[in-house]
């Protein structure tokens, strides 16, 4: 394996912005830089001044930036252009800097499309959430051919807007027992929401597939309940791996092999 160059003046920096930064992205990208011998380095950050942080990306020629909650929609006015993956759902999770021109992309969308590719399109589903990740999930389901869906959101205006865009319906709380349940909220995430169950136990028992976008922990209360009931589970770790791999390509122009992606994901999870 070719050696990665030592960090120096020509090293390109990539980063992430999140309210609660984790280590997966840094571990994953830096491991892939080693495996592909690229002169890049990756670091995660949080900020209380989004305008200044985005200005820093431009001013310091930072090559790319992953965007997480709660910045996926707020960042849009600060960018120069949007790729279709982001403009179609008004949500950005990736910024690419080309000589001071910042473009927004959304690799959450592509990750979800890949993860639901083998599911039955006739399955009725419920998505809980109305933020940037929920928009990506609903768009991916709608564009993949799912037609019978309910968007559950406390914010009625936001929930209805997402539902109406794809011909689904909004509800304040889930009522039916659909085959596919998707949590696109922080419920179950490490921190204040760690003990929250995304869906009622009876609904989990009645579903066929449980999908949680939460990455930390991988086994949320929702997915633990679903696994105990013998349901198929799609995890936030799978989402994280696929979206990070797509971001890597956008930043570097290099497509890693499946084996390299698996190696980087395993390395990141083994070094939390």
How far apart are the termini? 25 Å
Number of strands: 12
In which range does the helix fraction lie?
Answer: 25-40%
Largest sheet: 6 strands, mixed
| Strand arrangement across the biggest beta sheet | 2-1-3-5-6-4
Order of helices and strands: EHEHEEHEEHEHEHEEHEHEHH
Secondary structure tally, helices: 10
Decide which structural class fits the backbone: alpha/beta
Overall morphology: globular
Beta-strand proportion: 15-25%
Low-confidence stretches: none
Please tag this protein with its features.
38% helix; alpha/beta; globular; 12 strands; six-stranded parallel sheet; 272 residues; 10 helices
Summarize the structure.
By secondary structure, the chain is α/β, with parallel strands linked by helices. The protein is 38% helix and 18% strand.
Question: Mind explaining what this structure looks like?
Answer:
The protein is α/β, with parallel strands linked by helices and 272 residues long. The chain is 38% helix and 18% strand. The strands form two sheets. A six-stranded mixed sheet has the order 2-1-3-5-6-4. Strands 9-8-7-10-11-12 form a six-stranded parallel sheet, sandwiched between helices. Helix 7 links the parallel strand 10 and strand 11.
Indicate the topology.
Layout: E1 12-17, H1 24-36, E2 40-45, H2 50-59, E3 64-67, E4 81-82, H3 84-87, E5 94-98, E6 101-105, H4 107-115, E7 125-128, H5 132-143, E8 149-152, H6 156-166, E9 169-171, E10 180-183, H7 201-206, E11 209-212, H8 221-228, E12 232-234, H9 236-252, H10 258-270
Parallel strand pairs: 1-2, 1-3, 4-6, 7-8, 7-10, 8-9, 10-11, 11-12
Antiparallel strand pairs: 3-5, 5-6
């Amino acid at each position: 394996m070719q050696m990665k160059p030592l960090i120096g003046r020509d090293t390109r920096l990539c980063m992430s912005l999140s309210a609660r930064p984790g280590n997966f992205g840094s571990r994953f990208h830096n491991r892939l830089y080693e495996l592909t011998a690229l002169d890049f380095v990756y670091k995660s950050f949080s900020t209380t001044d989004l305008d200044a942080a985005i200005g820093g990306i431009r001013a310091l020629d930072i090559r790319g930036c992953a965007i997480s909650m709660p910045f996926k929609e707020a960042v849009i006015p600060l960018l120069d252009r949007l790729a279709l993956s982001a403009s179609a759902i008004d949500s950005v999770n990736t910024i690419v800097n080309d000589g001071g021109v910042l473009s927004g992309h959304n690799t959450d969308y592509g990750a979800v499309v890949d993860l639901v590719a083998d599911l039955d399109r006739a399955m009725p589903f419920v998505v809980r959430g109305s933020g940037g990740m929920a928009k990506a999930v609903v768009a991916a389901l709608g564009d993949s051919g799912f037609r019978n869906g309910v968007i559950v959101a406390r914010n009625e205006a936001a929930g209805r807007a997402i539902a109406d865009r794809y011909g689904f319906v909004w509800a304040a709380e889930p009522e039916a027992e659909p085959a596919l349940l998707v949590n696109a909220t922080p419920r179950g995430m490490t921190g204040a929401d760690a003990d929250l169950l995304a869906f009622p136990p009876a609904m989990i028992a009645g579903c066929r597939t449980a999908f949680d976008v939460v990455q930390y922990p991988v086994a949320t209360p929702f997915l633990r309940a679903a696994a105990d009931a013998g349901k198929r589970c799609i995890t936030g770790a799978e989402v994280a791996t696929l979206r990070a791999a797509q971001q890597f390509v956008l930043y570097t122009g290099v497509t890693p092999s499946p084996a390299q992606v698996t190696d980087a994901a395993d390395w990141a999870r083994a070094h939390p």
